[in-house]
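Field guide to reading this record: the first block holds the primary sequence, the second block holds the structure written as discrete tokens, and the final block holds curator observations. Each block starts with its own label. This record concerns Hexosyltransferase, catalogued under organism Scleropages formosus.

BLOCK 1 — SEQUENCE
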Amino acid sequence: MDTFFNLTLKEVNFLRWFALHCARARFVFKGDDDVFVHTGNLLELIDFKAQEAGGARSLFVGDTISKAIPIRNRESKYYIPRELFDQPYPPYVGGGGFLMSSELARRLLLASEALELYPIDDVFLGMCLQRLRVAPELHPGFRTFGISKRKVSPMNNDPCFFRSLIVVHRLGAQELLRMWRLVHNRDLACAKRALL
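BLOCK 2 — STRUCTURE
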């Protein structure tokens, strides 16, 4: 049966599949099926990171969450009993979408095999990163918790705001279409493109 708690196992199996079948890839983007990805900005970020010193060998970038603690509410799908984990989580990236180097993906597979599986896949990857002594990088272009829908939000007042994003999670079908149209509107002149 496919459940929320199988996501960690899927993550490990993805890393295993990637190691076996994608030997020549330099980067991996992992995203949920309900996210908007501005591929042009993603490619710009990859190009920028590839030119950095060290070739981004330990790159893991996305919407980083730090100092989170396990949820103790039994009604939550993220519920974790104290007996399972009783300390703050290591920094991790929201799983709606993130970018990592292929070299780090292979090292994450090795780290995942040395750790006991944890029921929350995003946190488990954070645990693997911690074992490798790699800190995930926060990037403002990754919005895995969606974007504000308040009337004063840039989403409502500045269409160029969309053009600077890379990943947006939690948009409905109509919002995805609206975002696609805004990002690809050739008549819209914006000052800058991606948030590198």
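BLOCK 3 — OBSERVATIONS
The chain has a mean pLDDT of 89.
The helical segments are 7-21, 39-51, 102-114, 121-131, 154-157, 160-163, 173-183.
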